[in-house]
Design brief:
The complex is a heterodimer of chains A (162) and B (574). Chain A has helices spanning 11-16, 26-37, 42-52, 56-65, 85-89, 92-103, 145-161; strands at residues 77-82, 116-121, 133-135, 138-140. Chain A has 162 residues and is of the alpha+beta class. Chain A has 2 domains: 11-65, no CATH class; 77-161, Glutaredoxin (3-Layer(aba) Sandwich). In chain A, strands 2-1-3-4 form a 4-stranded mixed β-sheet, with helices on one face. In chain A, α2 (26-37) runs antiparallel to α3 and α6 runs parallel beside α7. By secondary structure, chain B is α/β, with parallel strands linked by helices. Classes of the chains: A alpha+beta (162), B alpha/beta (574). The A-B interface holds A 42, 45-46, 49-50, 55-61, 64-66, 71 and B 157, 162-170, 177-181, 187-188, 573-574. The complex binds iron/sulfur cluster (3 copies) and FE2/S2 (inorganic) cluster. Residues 146-152, 176, 198-201, 203-204 of chain B line the site of one iron/sulfur cluster.
Chain lengths: 162, 574
């Protein structure tokens, strides 16, 4: 690993790598920036807009059209909820509602204390375990609203302990 | 020529016309919700569908071109059923708020529901719940009433080049919003209100100050001073059923007194005053190598646009305040002193064609001695009509009255400020006098008149070659500014109006503002200019007296303090 990747990512450096990018480059560029920063900040959106000649409202509009983009930094614990068909049939909607209530955020947001971020994903490819959620990549199978509360409590405790 | 049939009657059309154009010409109304005259159709709403013989599905008339031999049925049972279903579906996610809605009785959605005979709720389900955006001093957005027709987005982008708003999210969560769903007040929105004029529902409206004005009128401790902008007298009548272009100046004045205003002034007076200051500033810049071209500064949406998008050209903006703010400034200073009134006990109201004027009045630069605003409340033409209706004013039967001295006198140079090109024409008339000491032979400067987005002219004043340009609609302004940025240097003076066509098409004007009504309003203004005798700002006797008795000379110290200001770069999410 070079030292470069340990440094704070630089939006201008990313944009400089695409000097001739046109409007059709918007989505790959958003993906690249999110990859580097973990989310799309206002500064990034404005900078991308300048680079491509697009207004910030348009970029935000396009980015919110896709579930993959987030506008707040990831929490220490990143929770992904599967809303694929199998999970849906097994009650993932209630799981999502329970998570929103427990964390007091909407999907795509991060809790104020920066501890949890919530994301809805199309399918985690673990249909046999439905409904499933992951926290920082760790899978939880057969989740119910009651289990959601316990999972979140446990992670809060872990955070307090450290 | 194309031969076709509409509802079994033969009809002729031009190649390339849309079905909608032709059907309208035939005197038949096909409803539309997302169509904007002059812009490319998007086909978003589909209420304009008609049946065409031989076509498997219904076709959207706003975007479908006519063809030889086409047989169109505008109100076939199928077309009507489709339209009704669309409206019913829209209503399924729409609040039942008509009675309390600013657009009650003036709403396209409500009107269509009535015309199509929607009498029961067919589709249930949960309705979206969005927060109203009340952050802006000028524009209120209520996404709950939005039907996602997209007209506001297109006007903001294609006409104004601002793009403050766009479609955000997808599916059942799709809504219109700003970047990061912030309040309009921190967005790039310039408060022009053009989006309100095209919105078919109550999702967009002006922030109303009717309540504040009523309270002031009821407060015996306050002297209420009102001043109306040049264009309002030729548009207000439409709100009361008079034909577009009827000048109701005297009647409006009488009605304003009736509802309790203590003094009625005419903002065209300070338009004349603006010309004295701005004309002198232009001559000063030309003689002393100041930043050129000088850009007019009377349109507050445009000012904010420069602050956001062209901060490098801020030095080119005239330092003159707008006529509204000059009026506020002389009311709270000269007038207050003359009448022995405490400026804090004067409530000054402007009646404006414009929503951005509300923003302007609230700017920190526009305070009297840093204490009280020069203009306390701004009402649009629409709000004034509401206020008059509330107070039972019947404009059709009232007798006209004249405005009060000292700020009720105006020339037609100040009056034509209401149309794109008017400021330029008035300025040329007076600049000629300033430079040569003589009156311009022919006062009509036809080259700068009319509704085109850009007009240019070259003038020769005593051997001085002067290049002028007039643009309206910020999209048109941006194109010219880009030329100037790129080095274009043959222009001395540029007039910019935020709204396409000028104040007669302002964002605060009656809702049925369209090309026909704007043309009629334009004619009305130039009709006055043609028939009246005082046609130059420098011939306004009260303007002359104001200089003699109070201000001194144009660009003098007192003027500088009261009538001029500076603007700075503004950081918003662009
Ligand atoms: S926007 Fe129209 S339909 Fe909706 S509540 Fe207002 S008047 Fe009624
Ligand atoms: S008021 Fe003007 S600038 Fe603001 S959103 Fe509407 S159209 Fe755009
Ligand atoms: S706010 Fe009005 S103009 Fe804009 S999309 Fe909604 S209904 Fe259409
Ligand atoms: S008016 Fe034709 S699709 Fe909306």
């Amino acid at each position: 690993m070079t030292t470069e990747t340990l440094e704070k990512p630089d939006i201008n450096a990313i944009l400089e790598r695409h000097p001739d990018a046109g409007r059709d480059a918007l989505i790959p560029l958003l993906q690249e920036v999110q990859e580097a920063f973990g989310f799309l900040s206002r500064e990034s959106v404005v900078a991308i807009g300048r680079h491509l000649g697009l207004p910030a409202s348009k970029i935000y509009g396009v980015a919110t059209f896709y579930n993959q983009f987030r506008f707040q930094p990831l929490g220490r614990y990143h929770v992904q909820v599967c809303r694929g068909t199998a999970c849906h049939v097994k009650g993932s909607f209630n799981v999502l509602t329970a998570l929103k209530q427990a964390l007091k955020v909407e999907a795509g947001q991060t809790t104020r204390d920066g501890l949890f971020s919530l994301e809805v994903v199309a399918c985690l490819g673990a249909c046999g375990l439905a409904p499933v959620i992951t926290v920082n990549g760790e899978f939880f199978a057969g989740v119910t609203p009651a289990k959601v509360d316990k999972i979140i409590r446990d992670f809060r405790k872990e955070a307090e302990a450290s | 020529m194309v031969q076709m049939e509409i509802n079994k009657r033969p009809f002729e059309a031009q190649e390339g016309e849309t079905i909608l154009d032709v059907v309208r010409r035939a005197g038949i109304t096909v409803p539309t919700l997302c169509h904007i005259e002059g812009l490319t159709p998007t086909g978003a709403c589909r209420v304009c569908v008609v049946e065409v013989e031989g076509m498997p599905g219904l076709v959207p008339s706003c975007s479908y071109p006519v063809a030889q031999g086409m047989k169109i049925y505008t109100h076939s049972p199928r077309a009507i059923r489709a339209r009704k279903t669309i409206i019913e579906l829209l209503l399924a996610d729409h609040p039942d708020d008509c009675l309390y809605c600013v657009r009650n009785n003036r709403c396209d959605l409500q009107g269509l529901a009535a015309d199509l005979g929607v009498r029961t709720q067919h589709y249930g389900g949960e309705k979206s719940a969005y927060r109203e955006d009340v952050s802006s001093p000028a524009i209120i957005r209520d996404p709950n009433k939005c039907i996602l027709c997209g007209k506001c987005v297109r006007v903001c982008e294609e006409i104004q080049g601002v793009s403050a708003i766009d479609f955000i999210g997808r599916g059942s969560r799709a809504h219109i919003g700003t970047a990061f769903d912030e309040g309009l007040n921190v967005s790039s929105c310039v408060n022009c209100g053009q989006c309100i004029l095209v919105c078919p529902t109550g999702a967009l409206s002006e922030r109303s100050y009717v309540k504040e004005v009523l309270e002031a009128l009821n407060n015996p401790d306050l002297t209420v001073v009102v001043s109306h902008a040049p264009s309002v007298s030729v548009t207000l009548g439409e709100e009361f059923g008079l034909p577009a272009g009827t000048d109701v100046d005297g009647i409006m004045c009488a009605a304003l007194r009736q509802i309790g205003c203590d003094y009625v002034f005419d903002t065209a007076f300070t338009a004349d005053l603006t010309i004295m200051e701005e004309g002198s500033e232009l001559v000063h810049r030309i003689k002393n190598g100041g930043a050129l071209p000088m850009l007019t500064s009377c349109s507050p949406g445009w000012i904010k646009f420069v602050e956001e998008f062209y901060p490098d050209l801020l030095d080119n903006l005239s330092t003159c305040k707008s006529p509204q703010q000059m009026m506020g400034a002389v009311i709270k200073s000269f007038f207050a002193e003359r009448m022995g009134l405490d400026p804090k006990r004067i409530f000054s109201v402007s009646i404006m064609p414009c929503t951005a004027k509300k923003f302007e009045a609230a700017r920190p630069e526009m305070m009297h001695e840093g204490e009280t605003p020069d203009v306390d409340a701004v009402l649009t033409t629409r709000e004034l009509a509401r206020l008059f209706r509330m107070r039972g004013m019947d404009l059709k039967t009232m007798e006209p009255e004249t405005a009060d001295t000292p700020f009720g006198e105006r020339t037609t140079a100040g009056k034509i400020f209401g149309a794109s090109g008017g400021v330029m024409e008035a300025a040329i008339r007076s600049a000629y006098m300033l430079i040569t000491g003589e009156e311009l032979g022919d006062l009509n400067v036809k080259a700068v008149r009319g509704l085109e987005g850009r007009k240019e002219a070259r003038l020769n004043i005593n051997g001085l070659d002067v290049g002028v340009a007039v643009v309206s609609g910020l999209g048109n302004a941006a194109k010219l500014l880009d030329e100037i940025r790129a080095g274009r240097n043959d222009l001395h003076f540029v007039e910019v109006m935020t709204c396409p066509g000028g104040c007669i098409a302002g964002g605060g004007q009656p809702l049925d503002t369209d090309l026909t009504s704007v043309q009629a309003r334009l004619r009305a203004l130039y009709q006055l200019d043609e028939t009246e005798t005082k046609r130059t700002s420098h011939s306004n006797e009260w303007v002359q007296r104001l200089y003699r008795e109070y201000l001194g000379a144009p660009l003098g110290e007192k003027s500088h303090h009261l009538l001029h200001t500076h603007y700075a770069k503004r950081e918003v999410l662009l």
